[in-house]
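Quiz preparation item.
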């Protein structure tokens, strides 16, 4: 395994020496908020011979922080300590110099939005468009920062409309993701009354934006810890942080997809949904009952859908694949091309991940929940703001517009009339050659749907076909309705008396 050093190796070795000397200098200038992280460096690891197995090998070693991958190039970017580097080499991995080290060495973070700037921008938008917005504080972090959601619609408080959620920055260092969602707010609000499609969306649906789930963590990034991923959870007087996207109660710690080590970057927390950020998102989704969602992450140019554990089967796979392929065809990558994002589940494309928000949203709340990894390997978490911020947020428009379009254009809706609305749930089964196939998974996989509003509004996005909708009051089945969904149409069942 130890052949002659290749030129990339020579280049890498020289740079790591430079990094280490820079690191020792850091001890004297930590008060100046430089972005260098003295104990970390980034390497590119070749995984092209068997990407998924190689990623699992890497993830088993908790001292390696996997930042992102390029499946096309067969390279993964890993942050590690110098001592872990030799272990990586001993395991037979081919290592190359990562261009992302330059981001660790910057003296200041590029002008990405800070937590207080996000709140200021949301407040300005809600004041500029009072009729189209409702600004809500959905939770408070341990360090007393507000987590806010902006509802955008011609009737923001009307829950008898299909709702689509977009959230960003479960992970603190993924600064581009907040920019994507803030840009979305601008496009939707400026487009109302101007762009016929946006006007139609806001007149018939509600869009909810949570641009920054993890402001505490992001503040640490702005204060100099460029590679900080988790929140600001403390233990024994030290800030360890919990990976919020491993803290959701669905499949919490259920597969090889998180860590019990509080120093690990994928530490799942002391218990399921222990974190205020997790609780805030769960409460928002339980009260707003969205139909679909994108959770924005960076980087790797991927579109992900449930489940994060390999053994779990997704009963709505066909629908996720269909909408995902459409998003893939409409999102533009960093090289200006479409149809290049990878599409699949986390274990298909990366590694297992448990306790994620998308899995919880899908299983517990009936949400078509996607995650998107924006930007490629060369841009990383904090690409040059001047060069990449505007171009990236515009290139993402095709994907989120596709999700809104596909969610609203085809499926089933209705209005339940019942004295016991709080107890109503329903399943949808696809009927194929007279056989019923549970779309919700029925028994063990996905919970039955709740109505989309407390008033009994029903809405589900479906592919064309024959379906059967079965209602229950508590555990008692009460009614079934057969219906057909045609291409490009929402079948309206009207009033449904239970
Ligand atoms: Zn992430």
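Solution:
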């Amino acid at each position: 395994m130890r052949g002659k050093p290749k030129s990339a190796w020579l280049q890498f070795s020289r740079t790591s020496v430079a990094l280490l000397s820079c690191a020792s200098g850091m001890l004297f200038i930590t008060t100046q908020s430089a972005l260098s992280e003295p104990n970390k460096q980034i390497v590119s690891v070749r995984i092209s011979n068997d990407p998924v197995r190689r990623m699992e090998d890497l993830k088993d070693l908790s001292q390696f922080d996997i930042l992102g991958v390029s499946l096309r190039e067969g390279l993964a970017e890993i942050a590690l300590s110098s001592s872990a580097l030799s272990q990586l080499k001993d395991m037979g991995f081919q290592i190359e110099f990562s261009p992302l080290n330059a981001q660790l060495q910057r003296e200041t973070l590029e002008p990405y939005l800070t937590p207080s700037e996000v709140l200021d921008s949301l407040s300005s938008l809600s004041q500029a468009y009072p009729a189209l917005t409702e600004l809500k504080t959905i939770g408070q972090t341990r360090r007393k920062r507000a987590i806010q959601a902006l509802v955008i619609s011609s009737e923001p408080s009307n829950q008898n409309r299909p709702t689509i959620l977009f959230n960003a920055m479960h992970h603190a260092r993924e600064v581009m993701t907040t920019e994507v969602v803030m840009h979305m707010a601008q496009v939707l609000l400026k487009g109302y009354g101007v762009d016929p499609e946006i006007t139609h969306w806001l007149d018939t649906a509600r869009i909810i934006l949570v641009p920054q789930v993890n402001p505490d963590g992001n503040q640490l990034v702005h204060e100099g810890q460029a590679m900080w991923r988790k929140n600001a959870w403390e233990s024994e007087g030290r800030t360890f942080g919990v990976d919020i996207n491993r803290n959701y109660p669905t499949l919490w710690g259920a597969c090889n997809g998180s860590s019990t080590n509080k120093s690990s970057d994928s530490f799942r927390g002391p218990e399921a949904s222990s974190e205020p950020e997790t609780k805030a998102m769960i409460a928002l989704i339980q009260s707003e009952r969205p139909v679909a969602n994108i959770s924005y992450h960076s980087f790797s140019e991927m579109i992900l859908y449930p489940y994060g554990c390999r053994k779990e089967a997704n009963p709505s796979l066909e629908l996720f694949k269909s909408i995902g392929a459409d998003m893939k065809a409409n999102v533009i990558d960093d090289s200006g091309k479409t149809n290049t994002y990878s599409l699949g589940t986390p274990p298909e494309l990366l590694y297992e991940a448990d306790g994620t928000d998308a899995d919880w949203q899908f299983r517990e709340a009936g949400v078509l929940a996607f995650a998107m990894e924006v930007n490629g390997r060369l841009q990383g978490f904090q690409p040059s703001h001047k060069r990449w911020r505007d171009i990236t947020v515009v290139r993402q428009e095709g994907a989120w517009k596709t999700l809104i379009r596909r969610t609203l254009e085809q499926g089933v809706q209705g209005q339940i009339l019942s004295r016991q609305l709080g107890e109503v749930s329903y399943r949808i089964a696809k009927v194929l050659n007279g056989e019923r196939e549970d779309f919700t998974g029925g028994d063990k996989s996905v919970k039955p749907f709740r109505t989309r509003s407390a008033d009994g509004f029903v809405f589900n996005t479906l592919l064309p076909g024959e379906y059967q909708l079965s209602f229950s009051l508590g555990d008692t089945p009460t009614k079934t309705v057969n219906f057909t969904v045609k291409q490009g149409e929402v079948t309206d069942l009207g009033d449904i008396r239970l």
